Amino acid sequence: MELRQLEYFVAVAEESSFTKGAARVHVAQPGVSAQIRRLERELGQPLFDRSERTVRLTSVGAAVLPRARAALAAVGTVQSTVDDFTGLIRGHVTVGTVSSTTSGDVDLPELLADFHREHPGIAIALAEDKAAGLIDALLAGRIDVAFVAVGADDPIGLGTATVRNEVLVAAVALDDPLADAATITLAELVERALITLPRGSGIRAILDDACAAAGLTPKVAFEASNPLVVAQLAAGGLGVAVVPGTAVEDDPNVHVLELIEPCMTGRIVLAWRTGADTSPAARAFLARARLAHS
Fold first, then answer.
1. Does the predicted TM-score (pTM) go above 0.85?
2. Which residue in 135, 200, 204, 199 sits closest to 168, CA to CA?
3. Which domains, from first to last, does the chain contain?
């Protein structure tokens, strides 16, 4: 059994594709397939079900996957230990982000550029997803840190540092009947067609949780992954947008209402795994990011 076979196996499993897995490890697809077949012959069991178009893990493969990740992580700590001893930081760090962190208090391009200048030996990868996907990726070890939207409580297994607090507001077109109002209750809000971020996003989870707690069912008419697009749809008269206040505070095309009964708040946080080994590269980025947003 070779380390590269485990690396190829993990890449294909996480990408659910031999082609995408091969691209991730920068090896031709036939070479990846051949090495995984060698690994399967050595183990005496198939790791992937290849009977359908989508590559899926067999039950044996699913059991092997966390062990393979752990083995690769353990090997990585050998170099990390040497680097710690010599004071040299190198390696790679994968940073997750939601689209709403491209504005406001998080200047991610500047942060990444500053970090690269300070640590040119560290390769940086960026992964964008909704909040739920980023949290899953953090817990699974596929990414090292993430800027993610959450509610008042930290997700289990993650540590966080708050970058900014968000208050959810409603936004309507300037000619909407609500354009003369200053506030709107949640009970009044759900009577209208809503425009929101998609399920899996932190802001949508806050709205859904508030409705569930009040025994209300929101009528979602449109979804968009960018809060600015959500606001634009509201400006076009398609419904009432539910967005972070920072997304519409300077938007002249919508009228903003305070959401009350209840007031709904969330946070953009820098998140990382707790209770797990963290590479020197990830620790260095985490320290730099926390300093930038302290």
1. no
2. 204
3. 3-84 (1.10.10.10), 88-163+268-292 (3.40.190.10), 167-264 (3.40.190.10)
